[in-house]
């Protein structure tokens, strides 16, 4: 490096002398030399600056031919900076100039560079055929010229051997990219032979490139020893000649080799070596990102490998179990469990490319499928084995196993499976360079899929015709409706195309239960095959296509989608794990018995349900159950009148489909429409709600007003108001007055009491939802937006209308986040804003907006000519680039107004550095800046620091989740922040902070009175936090927010903290730190402290255990400040088992003792509950208070549930938690997700929650368990969307 510095210094001295003398040729030459020195040091931006000087001088003062080396160098720099369009511009200019000058040497060099650029473009895309054609063209041309130059060199000074060798390297690299590995190996090996023949130096850079690509080729061919030898030769040469970039890429290849052979520790070691080299090159950001991503991938692979080892232990246990279960009713069940374990092992092996293990597990899975007599699973297993051999490049074996899979799928008539097998066979033949046979296989696959699709279309058309006939006919009685169902059910062609192929896999028409001995199944199969032999002989390929079309599932590139186990609805099946029927769920369920069915349907109507069909008619559908069929009412079906599916037991499952659409009087554009909205098979809630406002009837798409599976009443009111406004005549709309909908009634009761779309749909069978208008509100922006939509022939975006209608924000606050807006679709809104001119906040977050929108917004701000009034600009999570900030820099109106700028989550890169610097200098009112996750590095952070001075009013700064950011840069930034008088909050989340940064933070905390510090994911550890805590929390004033999530804190730290020191914090986040129950006790002490000011406490993933969760909530009985508490993901493995064991021991000695709990409810009444450990009974004392009775009744129900479904330990824990929740009266939001609580326990908790909080809300779904008040509604705001409060 000292040698390079002296060389650079000498070159700059020579450049300055030439410039002073006016010797332009020498000035250009030395500028090129300086650029080349910076290039070799990895300083590409600086190199580009000097090469541009060379280009400008040459263009202005020298001949055109003098531009040739300059264009080549600039093109190479842009290529290394991955600015491909600029690279192509200069490289094409280089080739053009070379042709004009008839310079064959420069033509060869230019063609080589162009080929490399097009090769890079192709390698970064999936199907860029244009780039690969161009790469091949230019590489071939370069090879021809290199051969010609070698034969007849224009000068005796050079033999052009280097160009000839590089041409071989480039052609080999291209063949490798096309997966032609044998050709690539031959070309690259020939390149090395030329090096030996011509006695090229052992440490020549041309050799290093050949070894590099040969290493890659041998890696793909799975010749690990040869790959390792060539990669090490590449590294050795690059190290010898000081080529750090090449050396880093060599270590990347070595890491990849070890990763593919599952030697993950060695892989990470080599990746770290590559990372160190890449970071020593200033502008190799892309290479650094690639290496960091590789390291993350390997770490994930380590986790998967650990999971495989655990699952292998589980498989061994299952194998021991099956030995004892042979010949018993449990044999099939054990085999199915073993099959499930093997499927998981196969999938995980595929994830980490452990193909030897994949093959082993797939063969074992094949054996189990054979024992199960399951042809579908057998076909899948054959395909898995074939895939293993394909990836191991044993193509003959792969073809053999794929053919077995093909034959099995033919046997069961699965066209889908046959198509996928043919695709895989085509891939194998393509890899074996048998391209004609591969084409035939692909053609056959296409043909079979075409048959399948045609059959599916015909099936849908037949069902549509049957539906129309049913609508045209009027059944006189319910009996006729039943007859129609029976007749339709007898026709196989009306079966649902989404019926799983699993129910037909054995083709016997019989259902097998898990406890049936396998011998019985085998005999049954033999008997069934004898009975159906004649019939099977008459089946044609077309009939097989009919059968297979009924089991069509979504086809993906991964053959695992073949099996068809993901179902739209559940019918009777032979799989014990795949088909779960639970009365707790509102979907994927059949009615198991008459009593359950009657209990559910008694809440609806005696015999008929009226639903709005696709064309708006209401169909009476009989729901009485006959002795020969099950009828399942499910809201999650496709848009057909009804479906019939036949299970293996020949029982008919008649499934009532709810409507996917209805006849709508108005569409979103306000125009009358008699046509039904298009049905969407993919939408779970593709339904329409019929709403009457006065004499007008409006049909509202349910997806517009649902959140998760719940109705959002406020959204429903807003959509109803907007649609009502749209259907008004133009003259009435001209005032911009929209109705205020206060109440929506359904069946005479407030709709807010109905939680799900299903419940609403039940009511809609008999009555219409009624909305009452309680006034009018002027919404001028909505009026202008609708008008501009009409002018531009655009349909108004309902999401935008809902946001603009929001009654909780003023007209000066424009919030249109998450509206799927793009640069074109936002045009009507931009025009409306330009007409409105004045507004104080613009939130365009979570859309798909690009730089075009920013240009339009600059015109809006400029046209307003408003130089006063605060402005908040929230643009996070869009597609803005660095030049979007240029529009702010050039808009003088914003210099006085802009106070909050959130541009996080956009790919700004370091190109935005100068723009951010200008914004910080010119926008004198800016007090909040968020550039989190913007792909910026130390360079941009340093520019931010340089732009700050003591006159800045900046109070909030967020730079988290950017990489790489060095510790020195952060220290410099903190030093600048300490000079600011108003600075309050700093967000460094996701940055790795060392001791120098922690020391600087302590100094900053000692200098300023910070109110917030976000250090999530910084891994500063226990020592860092202890060092920081005292200066940070020293003041008597409240500390608003402290985020220490995922910082590597331990239970010892939490146990030893000074509780009084943390009492001043309002928001504390300790997520992801192993606090354990010991640390939880200290937090309990903090919560019961009378001086505690905490309002928000996040303890997610802290390994507290359920006992620790209980203690935390119990501590809230004495806390009057905490409003939000997150205790999600805190279960400890086997904790309930331990509790049960402890309780059992206690029960042996105190068998008849009872534990008395006291539940204090809202009216200071008490309910005494006792849990009997023998009989799990909960007794509730008498009470005169109705509220107390209701609460007690809720708890008693849960107790009886505990009696049925849970151990006494679980029941006791549930009751104690319910009591604690009832006593935490100040709490407004509680998150208990993913803590293994049952649905009965969730209802018990909610009963306690609602006993002291009215109104309340719950969000319980698949592990999620949120309880909240209406004001603190859960999931209402994404973490990145929380607003910064003004000073």
TrEMBL record:
Region (Disordered): 530-555
Segments of skewed composition (Basic and acidic residues): 534-549
Lineage top rank: taxon: Eukaryota
A GO MF label: histone binding
Pfam families named in the record: TPR_12, TPR_7, TPR_8
One GO-annotated biological process of the protein: response to DNA damage checkpoint signaling
Gene3D superfamilies in the record: Ribonuclease Inhibitor, Tetratricopeptide repeat domain
Stretches forming TPR repeats: 248-281, 379-412
One GO CC annotation: chromosome
Name of this chain's protein: Protein TONSOKU
Gene field: LOC107480275
């Amino acid at each position: 490096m000292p040698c390079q510095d002296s060389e650079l210094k000498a070159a700059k001295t020579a450049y300055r002398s030439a410039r002073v003398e006016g010797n332009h040729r020498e000035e250009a030459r030395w500028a090129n030399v300086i650029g080349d020195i910076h290039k070799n040091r990895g300083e590409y931006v600086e190199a580009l600056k000097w090469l541009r000087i060379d280009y400008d001088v040459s263009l202005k003062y020298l001949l055109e031919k003098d531009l040739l080396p300059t264009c080549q160098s600039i093109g190479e720099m842009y290529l290394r900076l991955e600015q491909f369009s600029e690279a192509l511009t200069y490289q094409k200019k280089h080739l053009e100039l070379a042709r004009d000058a008839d310079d064959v040497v420069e033509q060869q060099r230019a063609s080589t560079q162009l080929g490399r650029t097009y090769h890079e473009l192709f390698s970064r895309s999936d199907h860029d055929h244009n780039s690969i054609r161009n790469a091949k063209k230019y590489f071939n041309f370069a090879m021809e010229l290199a051969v010609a130059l070698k034969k007849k060199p224009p000068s005796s000074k050079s033999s052009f051997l280097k160009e000839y060798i590089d041409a071989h390297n480039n052609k080999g690299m291209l063949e490798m990219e096309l997966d032609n590995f044998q050709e690539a190996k031959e070309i690259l090996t020939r390149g090395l032979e030329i090096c030996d023949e011509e006695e090229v130096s052992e440490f020549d850079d041309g050799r290093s490139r050949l070894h590099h690509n040969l290493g890659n080729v041998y890696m793909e061919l799975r010749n690990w020893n040869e790959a390792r030898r060539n990669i090490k030769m590449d590294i050795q040469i690059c190290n010898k000649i000081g080529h750090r970039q090449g050396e880093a890429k060599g270590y990347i290849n070595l890491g990849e080799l070890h990763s593919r052979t599952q030697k993950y520790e060695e892989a990470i070691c080599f990746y770290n070596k590559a990372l160190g080299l890449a970071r020593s090159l200033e502008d190799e950001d892309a290479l650094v990102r690639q290496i960091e991503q590789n390291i993350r991938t390997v770490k994930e692979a380590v986790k998967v490998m650990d999971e495989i080892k655990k699952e292998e232990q589980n498989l061994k246990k299952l194998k021991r179990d099956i030995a004892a279960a042979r010949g018993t009713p449990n044999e099939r069940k054990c085999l199915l469990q073993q099959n499930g374990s093997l499927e998981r092992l196969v999938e995980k092996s595929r994830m980490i490319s452990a193909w030897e293990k994949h093959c082993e597990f797939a063969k074992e899975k094949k054996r189990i499928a054979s024992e199960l007599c399951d042809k579908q699973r057998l076909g899948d297993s054959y395909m898995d084995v074939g895939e293993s051999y394909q990836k191991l490049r044993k193509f003959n074996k792969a073809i053999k196993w794929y053919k077995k899979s093909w034959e099995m799928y033919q046997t069961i008539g699965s066209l889908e499976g046959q198509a996928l097998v043919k695709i895989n066979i085509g891939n194998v033949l393509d890899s074996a360079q048998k391209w004609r046979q591969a084409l035939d296989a692909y053609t056959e696959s296409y043909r079979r899929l075409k048959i399948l699709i045609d059959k599916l279309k015909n099936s849908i058309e037949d069902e549509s015709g049957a539906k129309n006939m049913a609508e045209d006919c009027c059944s006189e009685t319910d009996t006729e409706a039943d007859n129609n169902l029976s007749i339709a059910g007898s026709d196989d062609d009306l079966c649902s195309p989404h019926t799983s192929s699993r129910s037909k896999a054995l083709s016997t028409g019989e259902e097998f239960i898990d406890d049936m001995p396998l011998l019985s199944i085998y005999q049954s199969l033999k008997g069934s095959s004898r009975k159906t032999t004649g019939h099977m002989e008459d089946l044609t390929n077309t009939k097989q296509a009919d059968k297979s079309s009924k089991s069509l599932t979504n086809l993906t590139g991964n053959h695992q989608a073949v099996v068809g186990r993901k179902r739209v609805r559940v019918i009777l099946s032979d799989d014990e794990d795949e088909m779960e029927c639970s009365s707790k769920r509102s979907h994927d369920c059949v009615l198991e018995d008459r009593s359950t069915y009657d209990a559910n349907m008694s809440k609806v109507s005696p015999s008929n349900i009226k639903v709005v069909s696709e064309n708006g008619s209401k169909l009476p559908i009989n729901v009485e159950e006959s002795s020969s069929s099950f009828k399942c009412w499910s809201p999650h079906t496709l848009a057909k009148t009804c479906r019939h599916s036949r299970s293996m037991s020949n029982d008919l499952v008649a499934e009532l489909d709810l409507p996917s659409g209805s006849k709508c009087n108005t569409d979103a554009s306000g125009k009358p429409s008699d046509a039904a909205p298009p049905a969407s098979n993919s939408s779970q809630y593709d339904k329409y709600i019929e709403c009457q406002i006065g004499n007008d009837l409006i049909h509202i798409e349910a997806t517009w007003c649902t959140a998760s599976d719940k109705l959002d009443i406020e959204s429903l009111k807003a959509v109803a108001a907007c649609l009502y406004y749209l259907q008004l005549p133009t003259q009435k709309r001209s005032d911009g007055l929209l109705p205020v909908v206060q109440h929506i009634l359904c069946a005479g009761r407030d709709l807010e009491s109905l939680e799900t779309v299903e419940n609403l749909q039940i009511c809609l069978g008999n009555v219409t939802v009624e909305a009452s208008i309680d006034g009018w509100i002027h919404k001028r922006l909505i009026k202008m937006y609708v008008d501009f939509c009409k002018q531009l022939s655009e349909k108004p975006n309902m999401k935008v209308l809902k946001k603009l209608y929001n009654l909780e924000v003023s007209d000066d606050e424009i919030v249109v986040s998450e509206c799927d807006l793009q640069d074109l679709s936002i045009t009507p809104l931009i025009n409306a804003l330009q007409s409105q001119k004045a507004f104080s906040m613009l939130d365009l977050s979570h859309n798909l907006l690009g730089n075009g929108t920013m240009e339009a917004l600059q015109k809006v701000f400029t046209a307003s000519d408003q130089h006063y009034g605060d402005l908040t600009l929230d643009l996070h999570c869009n597609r803005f680039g660095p030049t979007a900030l240029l529009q702010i820099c050039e808009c003088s109106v914003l210099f006085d107004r802009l106070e909050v700028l959130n541009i996080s989550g956009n790919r700004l890169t370091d190109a935005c550095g100068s723009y951010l610097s200008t914004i910080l200098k010119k926008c004198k009112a800016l007090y909040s800046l968020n550039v989190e996750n913007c792909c910026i590095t130390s360079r941009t952070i340093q520019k931010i620091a340089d732009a700050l001075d003591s006159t800045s009013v900046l109070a909030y700064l967020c730079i988290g989740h950017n990489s790489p950011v060095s510790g020195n840069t952060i220290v410099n930034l903190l030093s600048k922040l300490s000079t600011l008088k108003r600075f309050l909050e700093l967000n460094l989340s996701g940055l790795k902070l060392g001791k120098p940064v922690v020391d600087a933070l302590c100094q900053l905390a000692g200098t300023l009175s910070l109110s917030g510090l976000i250090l999530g994911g910084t891994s500063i550890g226990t020592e860092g936090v202890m060092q920081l805590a005292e200066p940070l929390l020293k003041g008597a004033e409240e500390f608003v927010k402290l985020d220490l999530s995922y910082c590597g804190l331990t239970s010892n730290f939490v146990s030893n903290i000074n509780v009084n020191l943390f009492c001043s914090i309002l928001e504390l986040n300790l997520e992801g730190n192993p606090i354990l129950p010991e640390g939880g006790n200290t937090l309990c002490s903090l919560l019961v402290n009378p001086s505690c000011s905490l309002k928000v406490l996040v303890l997610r993933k802290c390994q507290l255990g359920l006992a620790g969760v209980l203690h935390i909530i119990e501590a809230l009985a004495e806390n009057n400040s905490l409003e939000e508490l997150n205790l999600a993901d805190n279960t400890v493995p086997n904790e309930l088992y331990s509790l049960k064991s402890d309780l059992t021991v206690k029960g042996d000695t105190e068998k008849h003792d009872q534990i008395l709990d006291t539940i204090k409810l809202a009216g200071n009444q008490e309910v005494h509950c006792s849990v009997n450990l023998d009989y799990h009974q909960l007794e509730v004392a008498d009470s005169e208070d109705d509220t107390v009775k209701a609460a007690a009744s809720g708890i008693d129900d849960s107790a009886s549930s505990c009696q049925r479904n849970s151990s006494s330990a679980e029941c006791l824990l549930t009751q104690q938690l319910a009591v604690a929740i009832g006593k935490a009266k100040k709490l407004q939001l509680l998150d208990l997700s993913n803590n293994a609580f049952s649905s009965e326990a969730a209802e018990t908790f909610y009963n306690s929650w609602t006993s002291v909080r009215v109104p309340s809300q719950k969000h319980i779904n698949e592990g999620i368990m949120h309880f909240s008040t209406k004001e603190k509604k859960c999931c209402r705001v994404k973490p990145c969307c929380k607003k910064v409060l003004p000073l």
